[in-house]
Write a structure and sequence with these properties.
The complex is a heterodimer of chains A (112) and B (114).
Chain A: E1 5-7, E2 10-14, E3 19-24, E4 31-37, E5 43-50, E6 55-58, E7 61-66, E8 71-76, E9 85-92, E10 100-102, E11 106-111
Parallel strand pairs in A: 2-11
Antiparallel strand pairs in A: 1-3, 3-8, 4-5, 4-9, 6-7, 7-8, 9-10, 9-11
Chain B: E1 5-7, E2 10-13, E3 19-24, E4 31-37, E5 44-50, E6 53-57, E7 64-68, E8 74-78, E9 87-95, E10 100-105, E11 109-113
Parallel strand pairs in B: 2-11
Antiparallel strand pairs in B: 1-3, 3-8, 4-5, 4-9, 5-6, 7-8, 9-10, 9-11
Classes of the chains: A mainly beta (112), B mainly beta (114).
Chain lengths: 112, 114
Amino acid sequence: SQQGEEDPQALSIQEGENATMNCSYKTSINNLQWYRQNSGRGLVHLILIRSNEREKHSGRLRVTLDTSKKSSSLLITASRAADTASYFCATDAYTGFQKLVFGTGTRLLVSP
Amino acid sequence: ETGVTQSPTHLIKTRGQQVTLRCSSQSGHNTVSWYQQALGQGPQFIFQYYREEENGRGNFPPRFSGLQFPNYSSELNVNALELDDSALYLCASSGGLAGVREQFFGPGTRLTVL
């Protein structure tokens, strides 16, 4: 079963605009990770944020985590056509072993 | 490129057959996890191997089994294939000396069951 939901399910923007994706989850977590997937191929790890962190940056990516609301957001600034992909959040509760539980994903389309 | 490789890239089988998928983990990683991703869905955890032992399993039947070898590469075996087993199968490696928590995924194997 899926842990959480990404919102929106699909997002269409122009190059140069910012893209914000939200993720909600259900249980307590150790960390939350964001991944990108191009055309149904392998997942590319973008960023990991630990449960005791509130915000993290990596290049054009900004991730926030609110454990009280069980939610996270991924902001991609100054989007490029190459950012077109599906984006997934995955939670790691680490109950003796590391098991990532993925959301349903946001499909992002960035038009030139 | 993550350094995680999977073979084959694509595979077509018929119902009732058996299949073996292979994964080579990233250098220095001792943990391999397998995920199944149905079309339009997020990946779902099948199981995880740590130092040649299964140390965690998701909600998949026993006909899904695996192995991990001394070099930390891994196999996923699925017996008595069903149509619903058609999916992208992803392996991910993690671990290493620093206890890295990120999982690094391979490109996947697309399995079609007819």
